[in-house]
Design a protein that fits this description.
CATH topology of the domain at 56-167: Transposase Inhibitor Protein From Tn5, Chain A, domain 1
Structural class: alpha+beta
Shape: elongated
Strand content: 15-25%
Mean pLDDT: 81
Distance between the termini: 57 Å
Radius of gyration: 25 Å
C-alpha cells in the first residue's frame, strides 16, 4: 500500500511507472523500514472510514505483520483472520515426522477445484503468549505443505481452507488484469484519467465475463484465453446501407461461437446511423 500526497491509500498496482520509481526511491511505498507490520491497522482504519465499521474477516500473507499484531487483532479488535506461517526448517521437520495416522482427509466444497481432498493435521499453538489454531495442510496443489494460522476455533478445517483458497482466485483475477488489461501500465498520472482507465478495465473485464458465460466451456476462462480463442480471428467486414456484416473465417473454435446464438442476428447499433451488426460465417463472396 502506498499513500499519495493527500495521505489517501493507493494500491501499488495502480501506480504508474513514475510513481513507482518515486515510491521506491523515497520510502517503501511511503513506509519507513520497520513500520510495515503496523500497516494492517492503517488498512483497518481506512476500511472503517469507508464503510462505517471494521472488516469482519481478514485473509493475508505471512509477511504482512507480526505475531504480536496478530494477538492485537484477536484480543483488542476481535477481527477474525486467516494467515500463513512461514515454512521454517523446524516446522517442516515437525510436519514430516508426523505419522500417517495423525492426518485426516477433508473434502472441499468447490466442485471445480482440482485438489478437493487435502490431508489436514491441526493443533493449538502458543505465540506471543496467546493461543491460536494451526493447520498443516498437504495435497493442496503445492509441493510443500501449507501452514495456516487463525483465531477461528469453531469453523471446520474444510471451511478455513476453502476460505483461504478464495484468496488465490482474487490473485488470479489481478494477474489477468495485469497481463491482459495492463493494469500496471496505466496511461496517465492524472487522477481523473487513472480512475477512467480503471473504470474501462472493469467494464472490459465484465464484458469478457458475460461473453465467456455464453460460450460453452469458457465460463471460468480468463479474458486472455477468451480473446485468443474466440475473438482474435480473421473476418471479412462488409459495410452496407442497412447493416455491417462480419463474416468469420472457419477456425477450430468457430463452432463454439456459432452455438452461442450470437450469430445471424441483426443487432441495432445506436451510433451507426441506423445500421445493424450481423455476425456470420464467411461465404466467400
Amino acid at each position: 500500500m502506498w499513500f499519495d500526497e493527500h495521505n489517501h491509500p493507493v494500491e501499488y498496482e495502480k501506480l504508474n511507472a513514475q510513481e513507482r520509481k518515486k515510491a521506491h526511491r523515497e520510502r517503501c511505498y511511503n513506509l519507513r523500514k520497520g513500520e510495515e507490520a503496523d500497516e494492517i491497522f492503517a488498512f483497518i482504519d481506512f476500511w472503517q472510514r469507508a464503510h462505517g465499521r471494521r472488516p469482519q474477516h481478514l485473509v493475508f500473507d505471512s509477511k504482512l505483520t507480526t505475531y504480536a499484531n496478530l494477538v492485537r487483532l484477536d484480543k483488542k479488535l476481535h477481527i477474525a483472520f486467516i494467515t500463513l506461517r512461514r515454512r521454517s526448517p523446524k516446522l517442516l521437520k515437525e510436519i514430516y515426522s508426523l505419522p500417517r495416522s495423525a492426518w485426516r482427509q477433508v473434502e472441499l466444497d468447490v466442485p471445480t477445484r482440482r485438489y478437493r481432498t487435502p490431508r489436514v493435521y491441526e493443533q493449538p499453538v502458543q505465540l506471543e503468549g496467546h493461543r491460536f489454531r494451526q493447520l498443516f495442510v498437504l495435497n493442496l496443489g503445492h509441493e510443500l505443505p501449507t501452514i495456516l494460522l487463525t483465531n477461528q476455533h469453531q469453523d471446520s478445517a474444510a471451511t478455513l481452507i476453502t476460505r483461504y483458497a478464495h484468496r488465490m482466485l482474487i490473485e488470479n483475477g489481478l494477474s489477468d488484469a495485469v497481463r491482459f488489461f495492463h493494469l500496471d501500465a496505466l496511461s496517465s498520472a492524472v487522477g481523473l484519467k487513472v480512475d477512467f482507465d480503471l473504470a474501462l478495465m472493469v467494464v472490459a473485464s465484465g464484458l469478457y465475463r458475460l461473453l465467456g458465460r455464453r460460450m460453452r466451456g469458457y465460463a471460468d476462462a480468463h479474458a486472455r484465453r477468451i480473446f485468443q480463442d474466440l475473438l482474435d480471428m480473421p473476418a471479412q467486414v462488409e459495410v452496407g446501407e442497412q447493416e455491417v456484416r462480419v463474416e468469420f473465417h472457419r477456425r477450430a473454435h468457430l463452432p463454439i461461437v456459432l452455438a452461442s446464438g450470437l450469430c445471424n442476428r441483426a443487432v441495432p447499433i445506436p451510433w451507426w446511423q441506423g445500421r445493424r451488426l450481423r455476425l456470420t460465417t464467411y461465404t466467400g463472396r
